[in-house]
Each structure stands twice: as structure tokens, then as C-alpha cells.
């Protein structure tokens, strides 16, 4: 499913990004984005090696590792707000929280499954958008190549929130998650309202 693939892209982004930006100089101290993302991936991989038995799949433990080491670096509110579009303004606080939680639950599941599928011998390369770097909306792409020759191109948007780097959108082969999900949200909300959208997302 496209959405699942897009969410997997968030994981690949965290594991593969290396790019430069001078925005961190605007604050007292903000870790450079390349060092930040390298640290995030190293912490997650280290936790997996330490806490997981390679001969046994422990999804509960893997989910906990994802929650601790991956999810704090995703801006769920911005992602959900952009996805809901104009409907975000009319949603109640309870509906907003429910939609954010649904994104979070989906991401936990997708991250965990992606961690099980990535080949340890995969190679990754990353490129910053040639038009320049805007640290409120930095666009870059990563290319992941497997030993069998298969490859996938992942684009992502990353910005600074609360003096930290956060990922808030991702694409697979040029199709952005927020844009694709927004069309689905709008269609369902226009048809039967936000509560029915939430119900459908909970059922999936």
C-alpha cells in the first residue's frame, strides 16, 4: 500500500540523511542536521543489537525501540495539520488529538516492519535539493540500493521545531505522503465528516 511505503520512507530518512544547513547558528546551540541524524540512527541500531535476539522476532520490544528512538524526531502535529488541510481549522481538539494518535500508531507499526525488512548490506546516498536549503522546509532525497540491485528513491521534508530537527513529510518515487493522504482525508470528510474518517482509520 502506498501510504505504508511512504511511512517506511521516514525510517529510511532517519537512517540515511547527511546534509548541511547553517540554521543552527541562529540559536545558542542546535546540533548540525547531519550529526543529529547520524546520532539518531546509531542509537536505534545500538538498541536493537543490545535488546533484540537476532534469532527471534520480538515485535513488542521492537515497537518500544521505535517509540523511544524514532518517534520523538517526527513532527506529528505538523504532519497531521498539513494532511487535514482546511478541515484542521474546524476540527475539535479531541478530533485533532485522535488524528495525531492515529498517525503515531501507524508509524510505530510501519517502522517496526521496516526495520525487519531492511538489508544490513544496503547502501544509501543522500542529496539536498539543488535549489537551495530553506531550514523551515528543507527538501532532500535518499537513494537506497540493495545488494540484489533493487533501489528506491525517497524524498523528505525536514524543518526546525522547538530548536530541534523534525521530519514532517516523506515521498516514495516523487509521491508525497501529506499530499496523497490529504486527498483521501478531504474525500472522506466531505462525504461523511471527521468522526467517520477517524473510525475508518481506526478500523484499518
UniProtKB/TrEMBL annotation:
- Listed InterPro entries: MlaC/ttg2D
Q: Which residues, if any, are the signal sequence? A: 1-25
Pfam families (UniProt xref): MlaC
Query: Can the keyword DNA-binding be found in this entry's annotation?
Result: no
**UniProt keyword annotations, A-Z:** Signal
Keyword Nucleotide-binding carried by entry: no
Q: What domain of life is recorded for the organism?
A: Bacteria
PANTHER family per the record?
A: INTERMEMBRANE PHOSPHOLIPID TRANSPORT SYSTEM BINDING PROTEIN MLAC
Provide the protein name.
Putative toluene tolerance protein
Amino acid at each position: 500500500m502506498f501510504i505504508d511505503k511512504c511511512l517506511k520512507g521516514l525510517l529510511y530518512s532517519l537512517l540515511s540523511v547527511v546534509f548541511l544547513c547553517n540554521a543552527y547558528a541562529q540559536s545558542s546551540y542546535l546540533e548540525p542536521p547531519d550529526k543529529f541524524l547520524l546520532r539518531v540512527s546509531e542509537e536505534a541500531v545500538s538498541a536493537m543489537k543490545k535488546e533484540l535476539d537476532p534469532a527471534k522476532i520480538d515485535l513488542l520490544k521492537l515497537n518500544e525501540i521505535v517509540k523511544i528512538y524514532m518517534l520523538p524526531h517526527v513532527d506529528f502535529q505538523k504532519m497531521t495539520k498539513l494532511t487535514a488541510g482546511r478541515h484542521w481549522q474546524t476540527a475539535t481538539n479531541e478530533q485533532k488529538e485522535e488524528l495525531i494518535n492515529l498517525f503515531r500508531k501507524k508509524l510505530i507499526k510501519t517502522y517496526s516492519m521496516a526495520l525487519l525488512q531492511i538489508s544490513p548490506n544496503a547502501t544509501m546516498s543522500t542529496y539536498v535539493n539543488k535549489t537551495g536549503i530553506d531550514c523551515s522546509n528543507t527538501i532532500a532525497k535518499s537513494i537506497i540500493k540493495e545488494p540484489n540491485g533493487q533501489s528506491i528513491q525517497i524524498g523528505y521534508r525536514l524543518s526546525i521545531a522547538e530548536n530541534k530537527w523534525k521530519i514532517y513529510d516523506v515521498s516514495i518515487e516523487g509521491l508525497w505522503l501529506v499530499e496523497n493522504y490529504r486527498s483521501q482525508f478531504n474525500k472522506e470528510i466531505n462525504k461523511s465528516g471527521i468522526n467517520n474518517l477517524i473510525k475508518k482509520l481506526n478500523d484499518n
